[in-house]
Amino acid sequence: MTPPDKVAPDPIQTPPGPAEQPANPAAMDAIGVPAKVWAVRIAGGWEADGKRGFSRVIGTFEGDAQRLTVQWLAEPDGRVVGSKVLEDEEAAKLTFGDMRAEPEDRGGVTVFLDTLPDADGIRDTWVLIIGGPGEARFGPAMN
Questions:
Q1: Rounded-to-integer distance, Cα 44 and Cα 24, Å
Q2: For the segment 48-82, what is each residue's pLDDT rounded down to a tens digit?
Q3: 85 lies in a domain?
Q4: How many structural domains are present in the chain?
Q5: Exposed (0-12), middle (13-18) or buried (19+): which is 91, by Cβ within 10 Å?
Q6: What's the CATH number where 132 sits?
């Protein structure tokens, strides 16, 4: 690896002519993630009815709106054992940027979602509380 202070200062030149297109456009996305997916976040573990696994939050674009879906996956095979779409008209109009998860001592996980800054630089925070399969509450953070 070339140290940063030894890199030539000349800009990288793009070869002339049209960009080469892959023979198979699907090869550009080897795992097949749809373009409408803007985030996937492992939230945390769960245990219920003698089973265990982990939950994940998937953010997608549906037209001009954003939609969040929680999925519960079982261990050890990772199959989906529950799914819940979080419906909130106000949240659908927002643009979320950051998503962070904090496990709860009593089980479950709290996920904090921050909106992108508005014109005044203000962000809103929304909270998603996830328990076992099918258990999820979502709404604006109350300070």
A1: 36
A2: 889 999 999 999 988 888 899 999 999 999 999 99
A3: yes
A4: 1
A5: buried
A6: 2.40.128
